[in-house]
Amino acid sequence: MEKETFTVWMKSLVCHGNGCTVFNSNGQVAFRVDNYQQRCSTKAFLMDSTGNILFSLNRKKLGFGWWEGFKWSDSNVRAEKACFRMRRDLRKGVCCVVSDDCYCNYKIEGFERKSSLKIRDFEGRVMAEATQKQSSQGVNLGDDVLRLTVEAHVDHSLVMALVTLYGLINNKL
């Protein structure tokens, strides 16, 4: 299996909505996040191309900046307990640390004032990387258009949930 490349557009396809749209390498919508409330909300839903919810992302009340991700299946939350928790690590600037009870730990390294990030596993291997997308002539397409490359063996919906949450934590969505 090969790495998969996505285009992440930090805009919603829905008029007057906040969110992002993710296209696969064929130009088809693969994932989307739509939020009809205010920007920088405390709740968001990651959906597939047909609108089925894959993850709900909730900011914990009185949680000192913690967010939780709940995995969905068949239009229902799979578990009462969060699949992962995430927050900004203030000692390391914009770096976010993800604690995940279901699988393993991930670390998201973001670069301040740049539209790029890396998701690493607990051994430091890069699982996914997002950089500012460029045209074939090398022109940047804007701060809100990213090229996301995901390793083949990684759950793509989990990576998208982490990227979405990173955007929410850093007020990009």
From TrEMBL:
It comes from the Eukaryota. Gene3D superfamilies: LURP1-related (2.40.160.200). SUPFAM superfamilies: Tubby C-terminal domain-like. InterPro entries: LOR, LOR_sf, Tubby-like_C. It holds the Pfam family LOR. Belongs to the LOR family. This is Protein LURP-one-related 4-like.
